[in-house]
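Morning!

This is the sequence you dropped in the shared folder:
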Amino acid sequence: MFDKDGGHGMIFTGLDGELYLTLHCPNNQPDERPAFFRIEETEESVKIKKIIKNKEKIINKKY
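The structure's back. Tokens below.
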């Protein structure tokens, strides 16, 4: 689901009833920052629906 440099992923249900994935990226100190993704669960998989925080500057950065 997330193929970049990140860690300690957790899936939770937000107060709005939506599912979210949160993790930190990148995996090197002191650059670690939280990232949040709205996700969708189907019978076959879980996929990212929307990036909520820390968009392109962290997620698309080359490590």
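Headline: The helical segments are 56-59.

More detail when I'm at my desk.
O.
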